[in-house]
Amino acid sequence: MSRFLSGAAGRLAPYIPGEQPRDQQYVKLNTNESPYPPCPGVRRVLESANAADLRLYPDPDVIALRQAMADCYGLSADQVFAGGGSDEVLGFFFMAFFDRGDKVYYPDITYGFYAVYTQLCGLEGKTIPLREDYSLAPEDYFGLDGNIVIANPNAPTGMAISPAQVELILQNNPQRLVLVDEAYIDFAKDQTCVPLLAKYDNLLVVQTYSKSRALAGMRIGCGLGAPEVIGDLRRIKYSFNPYNLDRLSILIGIAASAARDYLQEITGKIAATRDETKARLEQLGFTVLPSKTNFLFARSPVIGGYELYRRLKEKGVLVRQFEKDRIRDFVRITVGTPEQMDRLIEAIGEL
Ligand code: PMP
Prior knowledge:
The chain is an alpha/beta fold. Helix content is 35%, strand content 14%. The strands form three sheets. It has a seven-stranded mixed β-sheet with strand order 2-8-7-6-5-3-4, with helices on both faces. Strands 9-10-12 form a three-stranded antiparallel β-sheet.
C-alpha cells in the first residue's frame, strides 16, 4: 500500500479471482469457464473486424447490443442494460440503489463479490444463513428493511430455487429491489426469472455471457428490469464510464445473442456431463450438492477441501476451494469436457 491510499480503500478486502497459473498446463476446472468455444458467429466477427474502426468511440448507448439482447429475452431495449461483464452490472446496482449505511441482504454462502461491493459502497451487509442442507428458504427473505441480492442458481453451491419461490420474495418485499444474479441460469432449464419482469418492477435480473456463451474473455453481461430501474443504472454508468462496452464486445455480443441453437447445444452437453460426473463422484463416496450450473460442489468422505485441492493440483487438475466456515471441506469443480472429467476422476482415484 502506498502512503497515499485512503483509509477506506486500505480497509477493503478485495475479491480474489480464481488462479490463472502459467507454470504448466492444467486441466483447468477452477473458474467456471466453458470448455467449448464461443458460437461460430463470434469467429466470423473477429475475422471481419476492421481495425480502422477502432479510432472511433463505441456507441455509449450500446443500442444495437441492447436490442439484440432484448430480442433474445423477449423484452424491449429499454428493459436492458449492457455491462462489461455481469460484475460491472452488479457494481452499478450497488452504486445506484443504496445510500451509505443502508442494509443489503444476501446469503451467508454466495458469490464473494457481493460482500466486496458492500464494503466498497459503505453499506451494512446482512447475511442470511442458508439452511443446513445449503438450500435457500424464501421465507427467510420476507419483509426485509434493505435491498436483496441472491444468486440463482447460487454459487458456489450450484443449487437453485424456482421462479415461484423468487416470486414469493418479490411479493413480500414490494418496497425493496431484489437482484437475482442468473450467471448460471442457462444450465438450469426453465428456471429464469425473466418472465416475472412482466409483473414486478422491483426485480432486476443479471445475466452474463461469460459462462454459457463461452465469452469470459470478452466481458459482456446485462441487467434486465423495469425501464425506470434500467434508467437508474444508466445514470450511474454515465457518471462513471460512459463507453463501458468497446466496439468489439458490442459486435461479439450481438453475434452471441443470436446463436440460440448453439447455446442450447453446449449448455445441454455441459449439463449432461455434469450429471454424469456427479454420479461418478457419488460412487466414490463424495457428497455432491444438486447442481443446476456448470460446476459441482463436492465433499470427499476422507480428505479435507484444501488438501484435495492441493493434491489434485499436484496431479495437474485445478479446482477451487474456499477457506470459509461451513464450506471449507468442499471443492468447486467446473464441468469440462467428458475427457477432462475422466482426468479428474482418474486423479481422484489415484489419491
Ligand atoms: N455472478 C456470479 C454468481 C458469478 O459466479 C460470476 C463469475 N465470477 C459473476 C457474477 C461475474 O461474471 P462476469 O463478470 O464474468 O459476467
